[in-house]
Amino acid sequence: MKSLTLGIVISALVLVMAAISFVWTPYDHEVMDIPNKLQPPGGPHWFGTDHFGRDLFSMTMVGARTSIAVALVAVGIGMTIGVPLGLTAAARKGSWLDELIMRGNDLVFAFPSLVIAILITAVFGAGAVNAIIAIGIFNIPVFARITRGAALSLWEREFILAARVAGKSSARISAEHILPNVTNLLIVQGTIQFSLGILAEAALSYVGLGAQPPTASWGRMLADSQTMISFAPHMAIFPGMAILLTVLGLNLMGDGLRDLFDPKLRRSGR
User: Fold this and answer.
1) Burial 25-36 (b: 16+ CB within 10 A, else e)
2) Hey, which of 16, 64, 103, 195 has its CA 20 to 30 A from 168?
């Protein structure tokens, strides 16, 4: 399971960096040092400085915790609401409630997270909280569909029929028998949605709808670098690499978990 191991290592390094940023960074990421602006990587500033003289390594560390926090809470919202909806829809297959839930999912899918963020921002203003809400809303139908699809195949199994004969209600069967059997699938999907949440947070911050200054964000760092990339490429390289490595690590971990949980998908040497 090389992909799983590599994914865990990369993801762990990012998490450790984010955790350390709560107690230590080489410099205060909010302090501007104009005389030392646009310093190249090396010396006291490992990643160089930006156009305000802020230390890019410190900003990258703090940006990690911002991206992880937004993506983690957004995925949590999606799972908390989407999984019960999916279980309910599967238990009431073919009913008006099933149809209502699935058509509601289709409606949300019609609006990408960026569009949802724009709508929320127009009402409540830009910020990390609104980015969490936008990404979380988009995650709800994802988990609802995944849960419903997996649960439908289980409702025809013999052990479920035995539970129904024993007099258990649909809600109890969903909680005691269906949910434990779809947990592995949800873990894998959660890992994938986590990586997509990192990308979504960066995109929202890039266009000014995510975390607002002085909060450091990888997407905001990329936005600040776009007019200076010709003479200060390090401003874009390091936050871009941070996003790339984080998403790569999470995707590798998700792929490895999928193979680990499903023996049919295991391939030799992975």
Assistant:
1) bebebeeebeeb
2) 103
Instruction: Give the tokens for residue 157.
Output: 């199994």
User: Bridge-partner residues for 45, per DSSP?
Assistant: 42
The string of pLDDT tens digits covering residues 32-42 is: 999 999 999 98
- Residue reference for tokens 């390091």: 238
How would you class 111 by CB atoms within 10 Å of its CB: exposed for 0-12, middle for 13-18, buried for 19 or more? Answer: middle
The torsion angles phi and psi of 96, rounded to 5 degrees, stand at -65, -30
CA angle 183, 185, 190 (to 5 degrees): 90
Please give the class, per CATH, of domain 2-265.
Answer: mainly alpha
Integer Cα distance of 145 and 193 in angstroms:
13
For the cut 80, the answer to whether the pLDDT of residue 112 exceeds it is no
Residue ranges covered by each domain of the chain:
2-265
Q: Do residues 253 and 7 touch, judged by C-beta distance below 8 A?
A: yes
pTM beyond 0.85: the answer is yes
Rg, Å, the chain Cα set = 22
Among 72, 113, 69, residue whose Cα is nearest residue 204: 113
